[in-house]
TrEMBL record:
Function: Cell wall formation. Adds enolpyruvyl to UDP-N-acetylglucosamine.
Entry keywords, A to Z: Cell cycle, Cell division, Cell shape, Cell wall biogenesis/degradation, Cytoplasm, Peptidoglycan synthesis, Pyruvate, Transferase
Binding site for UDP-N-acetyl-alpha-D-glucosamine: 102, 131-135, 172-175, 317, 339
Gene (name only): murA
Gene Ontology CC terms, in alphabetical order: cytoplasm
Name this polypeptide is given: UDP-N-acetylglucosamine 1-carboxyvinyltransferase
Residue numbers of 2-(S-cysteinyl)pyruvic acid O-phosphothioketal PTMs: 126
Segments forming domain Enolpyruvate transferase: 8-418
Family: Belongs to the EPSP synthase family. MurA subfamily.
Lineage, broadest ranks: Bacteria, Pseudomonadati, Pseudomonadota, Alphaproteobacteria, Hyphomicrobiales
Xref: InterPro entries: Enolpyruvate_Tfrase_dom, Enolpyruvate_Tfrase_sf, MurA_subfamily, RNA3'P_cycl/enolpyr_Trfase_a/b, UDP_GlcNAc_COvinyl_MurA
Residues that hold phosphoenolpyruvate according to the record: 22-23
Keyword Cell division assigned: yes
Length: 430
């Protein structure tokens, strides 16, 4: 199994290209099931999660080609992928496939809307909390679906004439359930209004693509989304928006090591809150024509308290990385996680590098130390694993990160991007 070996101590200087967003690409790919026409997505990152979803969509009958070549032959960067689901050959998403990635549960929306039925295994995913599906079930029920859970599967059926537009106010913000309800409502009879919708940029990106396919959605990116159902959707061509989590991760890496880096092909307005926290930690951040420049020279890292929140708050997907940064701050900081109940698995691994962190409920107290020392550490989930890379970049000596498959789920060519900026990072295959 691959490991990542980091020898810390180098500053980062240079240019890092930011990939398309994993968390936009996944729902966009799933939206291709809504039409019998071809959906072409540009700027799709090459990640294990994308490959897994390609397998899942293939199981439903999607014909998928990468840059005009067949799936799995294209290794190029920022790929263009064509998805054509002329016929849905199966409305069942089996446990063996869904258990590997939570987002694959989201096929329930398009399958139900287009075929009138779906049988989808309860999901798996990162071990960051219980992550139930009650909000999906309530939301789809509000569109007239009949839903039963049986033998680990969610069985959903639409009324004879198809889903019916309805009104649903989420009791809690959910990105995935917002995606699913929005997709399902595009083909419902009548108008759907979603209240307390997730406002994440990935939701707005999905709505933009669905509208290009002929849907009638307004308000995506705000707390209220209105969807006027249409009879059918057509194909479209859509470019996946930049990955704000990857952007924030590299910005934090530069704040950690010091240096001067341009993050290219990204947009600072996607992560204002996180960039503000990095600024307060002592880095200079400015917008460039095509991205962000981040500089930290001289003074050390300042302690900053953060609380995770749904967009536009500080993203939970950057919490672990920010903790990595705070381990070397000149003082005490506090990080409170409000989205997931078990997203602190990086704490004990960061401690192996010499970090001083204590946990009280959902808040971590980080007492910054002047030096971290390299050690063997283990990746436990996607974002936790990259926090170890950030800490390793600033630790003395060698840090060896095992279980790298977590990193490969969400960071495209991480070692290449960092090495080009002067870091000593390599993949070691056993
Ligand atoms: N929740 C429920 N019931 C539901 C659905 C969600 O209680 O039916 C809870 C969850 O357990 C969690 C909270 O609501 O406590 C928010 O979960 P949400 O549904 O928003 O998360 P998600 O859609 O499963 C997406 C991202 C996550 C990201 C969260 C929050 C994708 C593929 N995943 O997950 O990304 O952390 O939104 O922003 O978009 C990652 O990329 O590493 C990752 C975990």
């Amino acid at each position: 199994m691959d490991r990542i070996r980091i020898v810390g101590g180098n500053q980062l200087n240079g240019v890092i290209p930011i990939s398309g967003a994993k968390n936009a690409a996944l729902p966009l790919m799933i939206a291709s099931l809504l039409t019998d026409d071809t959906l072409t997505l540009e700027n799709v990152p090459h990640l294990a999660d994308v490959e897994q979803l390609i397998r899942i969509l293939g199981n439903h009958g999607a014909d998928i080609s990468v840059n005009g070549r067949r799936e799995r032959q294209g290794e190029s960067y920022a790929r263009t992928i064509h998805f054509t689901s002329r016929n849905i050959v199966s409305t069942t998403a089996p446990y063996e496939l869904v258990s590997k990635m939570r987002a694959s549960f989201w096929v329930i929306g398009p399958l139900l809307a287009r075929e009138g039925k779906a049988r989808v295994s309860l999901p798996g995913g990162c071990a960051i909390g219980t992550r139930p599906v009650d909000l999906f079930i309530e939301g789809l029920t509000a569109l007239g679906a009949n839903i039963e859970i049986d033998g680990g599967y969610v069985n959903a059926t639409a009324p004879a004439g198809g889903l019916i537009g309805g009104r649903y106010v989420f009791p809690k913000v959910s990105v995935g359930a917002t995606h699913v309800l929005m997709m399902a409502a595009t083909l419902a009879n009548g108008t759907t209004v979603i209240g307390n919708a997730a406002r994440e940029p990935e939701v707005a990106d999905l709505a933009k693509c669905l509208n290009a396919m002929g849907a009638k959605i307004s308000g995506a990116g705000t707390g209220t989304i209105t969807i006027e159902g249409v009879r059918s959707l057509s194909g479209a061509r859509h470019r996946v928006l930049p990955d704000r989590i990857e952007t924030g991760t590299y910005a934090m890496a530069v704040a950690m090591t010091g240096g001067d880096v341009i993050l290219e092909d990204t947009d600072p307005s996607l992560l204002d809150t996180a960039l503000e926290a990095i600024r307060r930690a002592g880095a200079e951040i400015s917008a460039t024509n095509s991205g962000i420049r981040i500089v930290r020279n001289g003074p050390g890292i300042r302690p900053v308290d953060i609380v995770t929140d749904p967009f536009p708050g500080f993203p939970t997907d950057l919490q672990a990385q920010f903790m990595g940064l705070m381990t070397k701050a000149g003082g005490v900081s506090h990080i409170t996680e409000t989205i997931f109940e078990n997203r602190f698995m990086h704490v004990q691994e960061l401690a192996r590098l010499g970090a001083r962190i204590s946990l009280a409920g959902q808040t971590a107290k980080i007492e910054g130390v002047s030096r971290l020392k390299g050690a063997p550490v283990m990746a436990t989930d996607l974002r936790a694993s990259v926090s170890l890379v950030i800490a390793g970049l600033a630790a003395e000596g060698e840090t060896m990160v095992s279980r790298v498959y977590h990193l490969d789920r969400g960071f495209e060519r991480l070692e290449e991007k960092l090495t080009r900026c002067g870091a000593h990072v390599e993949r070691v295959s056993d």
